[in-house]
Amino acid sequence: MRDDFISTVKAEWLVRQSKLTVADAKHLADKVDTGWWQQNKARILKSIGEA
User: Fold this and answer.
1) Are 51 and 42 in contact (CB under 8 A)?
2) Domain locations in the chain as residue ranges
3) What is the DSSP string of 3-29?
4) Collapsing DSSP states into helix, strand and coil, what is residue 34?
5) Spatial CA neighbour of 10 closest among 29, 2, 21
6) Of 30, 7, 2, 34, residue with least CA distance to 15
7) Rounded CA gap, 12 and 47, in Å?
8) What is the pTM of this model?
9) What are phi and psi for residue 23, nearest 5 degrees?
10) What percent of the chain has pLDDT over 90?
11) In angstroms, rounded to a whole number, what is the distance separating the alpha carbons of residues 40 and 51?
């Protein structure tokens, strides 16, 4: 429980120190999602029988 609290406080401190804007965060999330899909598309489509 104590470790969870400390991790939460550290994460919040890091977020407050960040210069990342909301728009930048959304752009980064979109890039990550796209990259993940590109890496996993064939495997997922194969598993659902669409490839």
Assistant:
1) yes
2) 20-51
3) HHHHHHHHHHHHHHH----HHHHHHHH
4) helix
5) 2
6) 7
7) 38
8) 0.48
9) -65, -40
10) 69
11) 12
